[in-house]
Amino acid sequence: MNDLNIYLTVGAILFSLGLYGVITRRNGVAVLMGVELILNSANVNFVAFARFGGMNLSGHIFAMFVIILAAAEAAVALAIIINLYNKFGTVNVDDARSLKQ
Amino acid sequence: MSLSDLTFFFVVALTIGSALYVVTSQKLVYSAMALFFTLLGIAGLFVFLMADFIAGTQIVIYVGGILVLIVFGIMLTNRISDVRLSHTSMQRGVGGVVVLLIFAGLYKMISSAPWYLESASAPESSVKGIGKLLMIEYLLPFEVASVLLLAALVGAAMLSRKSKS
Lengths: 101, 165
Hints:
The structure holds two protein chains of two kinds.
Chain A: H1 4-24, H2 28-52, H3 58-88
Helix pairs in contact in A: 1-2, 2-3
Chain B: H1 3-24, H2 28-48, H3 52-76, H4 92-112, H5 127-136, H6 139-160
């Protein structure tokens, strides 16, 4: 199936689902999963445009940088969530309202 | 309908179905397992888009790295004696409506925009081209990314260390 619109629609669906996860989840780790879905949807779009815009490999480079950023972001976010858990005893993002204990 | 079309629709269904499960399941570990299949499906989409290197990177970094990290996060932030590793969602109705509206807008934009299309034959392997671009045109972002990874490494190690005070 070679059609740009199909890939863009899949990307849009993934983005919507990721956003739904981010705004409805209360567990910090689950919010992080939603963020990963959103980043992946952007990657699908980048690579799809690269493929249907004359196989321009710059889109692949962008997708790779997104993957690198996602790895860094996941490491730091999980460190923060674990810190939150040690300090407050919960990973509910609604309860993390104060900067200091 | 050819075999490749069937495979494509299977991959798309796997991706979207498991992504739906990721955001709706009430059990956190099940969410993580569904995320595994979503990431695998996206790697399959990359293969369909002739992006072999990105597909490999996706599997190595996302499935092998980030997902393992997320599972660690789940295990470290739940009491193991607490059997129900579950979590609740809030404001599902409002969230669903907002997300559906956003998706409708995106879909309208996708189907009506005159996208720039240019057909080109896929190269045998994208690795050579990516390597050239990375070492010539995108060398500065590449080096900055390595500094960023180092900063993230140091930051994550410092944040998750037990404070001695």
